[in-house]
Structure formats: structure tokens, C-alpha cells
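Q: What would this chain look like folded?
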Amino acid sequence: MQIPKSLMIAAGALALSGCSVAAIASEKVVQAPEAAVQANELDGLQVAIFAGGCFWGVEGVFSHVRGVKSSVSGFHGGRADTATYRQIVTGFTDHAEAVRIVYDPNVIRYDELLQILFSVVTDPTLLNRQGPDVGEHYRSAIVPMNREQARVAKAYLAQLDESGVWGAPVVTQIEFYKKFYEAEDYHQDFMAKNPRHGYIVRWDAPKVRALQELYPEHYTSTFLRDGS
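A: My prediction, written as C-alpha cells:
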């Protein structure tokens, strides 16, 4: 998608002070289908990396999921020397705002994490944007950490596309793991630390409420703080 230069500049300026709070239509909450291909994972904690727009909301939602042990905001892809928020929001560094999740597959499987991701966190039909945020760094992407995750992710994206529940083609990509860089400290647990922030109230708090309503068996009211 070709983004007008004027729009990219405006989006970058807004993002320098945090995720944009533009007043546009609300994001959709969609009941994504249960995965036809379930993950068969080894015992022990596993790592998942998801990109789905502004990482405040992605991290905030998964910090309320039972079985998740840590949820850290950061940047996937790109180079180490450009892995800073001020550089990434220009949209020219190849990074994606992403979240690294450590989870217990005996409590929640990888395919269940994907179902939550596409139900309440990210719209898989949007290219290089989510909610009010525009740019390649806000792309929707799955970053498998092993062959099993890759197998499940590929099957699930195909299933989502075939389901037609969004009424548009699925454009979420599977990306090879490169490097995950943790974001600056002020981005970590942003939702919990700033519950009255305009962006959180408008865009991210509704996602947590949707998690509770759609997946009460996976929801926990306790916010997982500081990756502990």
C-alpha cells in the first residue's frame, strides 16, 4: 500500500509522543474461529512473538492471559543501531512494534494465543496499520520461534482467510525471527501505569474488556507487571 508522504509525516509526528489518538472508527472485535490445527508443544515455558499495531495494547492484553508468564514490549527485525522508539516511528527502520510473550503451553496453547490475538488485538486484514496508527512498523505479523509454531501459524492464517469472518483478505504475514529488542522502560506495562491515558482509554482498555467477555476461561484480572 502506498502511503502518501504527508500522511507518513503526520503519523510520525504524532507517534513521537506516543501512539496516535486520532478520532476514527473503533476497531472491530471479531470472534476468531477455534484453530483446526492445535499446537503440540513440548513441556516447559515457550516464547511467542506477535506484532499487531501499537505494542501497548498487545502487551496489555496478553498480560491478562492465564498461562502467560511475561509480556514485554519491543521491536522485531531491523538493526540494533536503529532499535529506538524515536527512530522506529519514522517507519523507515524495518522494525515492527512487537511483544515477546513467555507462556506455559500446559495452561494455554500457541493456537489459543493466536485466536486471542486475532479476536481482540489485531485486525489481520489491515496492511501496515492498526486502529489510528499508520506505518510499516505497525504491521500485523507472527514470528514463529520453532517449527511447531510455524506449522500452526501457517495453518491458522489459511483458516482465517477461508473463514471470511472479516469480509476481506487476511494480510498478516509470517516473518522469520531476526532479533527482538526490548523497548524503553517507559513503554513496559504502559497500560497498567497509565490507565487514564487517552490512547489507552480509547483503544486498548476495550481490548482487555473484550478478552474478558470472549475468553473468560483465559482471562485473569491480575495484570502481569514488569515481566515478572
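The longest strand covers residues 68-76.
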